[in-house]
Design a protein that fits this description.
By secondary structure, the protein is of the alpha/beta class. The chain is about 35% helix and about 15% strand. The protein starts with 8 loop residues before the first helix and ends with a helix.
Length: about 350
Amino acid sequence: MSVLDLARPEIRELAPYASARSIAGISPVTLNANESPWPAPGDATGKLNRYPEPQPAALVEAVANHFAVDASRVLVTRGSDEAIDLLIRAFCAAGRHAIVQCPPTFGMYAISARIQDARVINVPLLADEGFGLDLPGLGLAAEDPAVRLIFLCRPNNPTGSMYEAEGILNLCRQLSDQALIIVDEAYMDFAAEPSMAKDLEALPNLAVLRTFSKAHALAGARCGCLLASPDVISLLKRILAPYPLPTATIDAALKALEPESLAATQLQTQLLNQGREVLAKVLKDLPYVREQWPSEANFILLRVDDGPALCDWLAGQGVLVRNFHSNPVLSNCLRISIGSPPENARLAQLLEAYSP
């Protein structure tokens, strides 16, 4: 069985939109795309009057090299959010199919599914086991014939928890004919374990999401990618917008993958991880902190006596943190991102001064 057998048949049969740039690149005289022949006033690059490549060859190759996969396994997207949406639209027919997620987790899996009118099946993380995966529960959920996709955020947002790769690999093998398993590695650059991209060739029903928004410091550029089997990549190209990435985003992502930029990113990642450990020690000694969870991301999740009150007080001092109190599993929980050393020092000073 091919992983494409899980996809919607009407998507498999769909002919992709043939944009002008996908048919031919830039020529000395380019009159096939209804573009302006002149750059816009203030366009320092002199090229924003032309549409970009739908899948820029240089960027696809750079991403492939960075993650040590073949270029046929790469789809670059407007952040990883677009890849999530494309996967659900391609594999889940409205009102018929379902996804599985493991709350508390990234909210866009459920939102994208509900927009598509796909059912959302929750297999909650094991709160009493450090928010670990319920692998037997995932296997049982996938027995529902409507299930097409399973989303696993690793390290997880907002808990920061890391799941063992071998358990996920075994799940892929167990569900090889039943579901596509998507591992969201948005925060993987901060973790000690390697990416699961290395396992793609052996497991056609495994896919990996990555983003330039976190460690690569390009949140404002909106660039991400999906790493998956060539069949899945080819399928999603059928429903991809004609020009998903702006030229400026392509240039920024290419720059981020140059050796000097990668070296700077590695240094900044180390600083953030050091800051995470320092903050964890500060939190450990605060009398109003009831619990904090080990994190392999660029944030820490903690539970305090009164989460909303602390969140509001910090905001009044000019420091914003994320309040998760509305989630019943995360009552009085806050997620604190790791900032620069001066920002972390300011936060620590405020936390130590706070009196509930």
